[in-house]
What we know:
By secondary structure, the chain is an all-alpha fold.
Amino acid sequence: MGSSLPEDVRLILYTELLDYYRSQSYYFEVRSSIVFGRDRAKVIDMLSRPSSERLDELETRLSYGSKYPYREAIVCACGYFLRLHERYLNVLKPYLTAGELITCI
């Protein structure tokens, strides 16, 4: 899925995916399966940003509405983000449909 996305959306998705899996106890068992290729350095750089900055980026993308062509990838990234940062649910909740909200939490 990620390789067919534009770079900015792909980096958002990869960053949240890596952040989530790094927090899991089984990360060392699956880390060789997570390959970012040429995006690795950019993903690591994005991970160094505070979660509030990453939240702003997700919120901006969700505010584009349901017609945004890469909304599915952004909702997927929100799911990874909200699993680690549940306190931000109220910020993203107005932008998510009921079905999307169920997949995120």
